[in-house]
Amino acid sequence: MFNPEKLAVDLLARCISVPPQTNVLAGMTAQDLASLAAHVIDTCPKCGATAWVNIDCDLCSTCHRITRDEPLPSEGKTEEKTR
Question: Does residue 79 register a pLDDT over 70?
């Protein structure tokens, strides 16, 4: 069965594991797709908190910045475990 949040979590995991300006899909960068995915997710897959509010969770911190249109870290080394 189609699960949009699971798809968004998988997409987010891929996008935060590569440099932000990497072309991931049809001219869309990792930064663009990470932002799209982060807006779909309701619960942080790493800590279980309401999406992006736990200041002690590195994934929440990264996605909080993404949803505020702040850039991803340029190294693409934020491989937070998302499952």
Answer: no
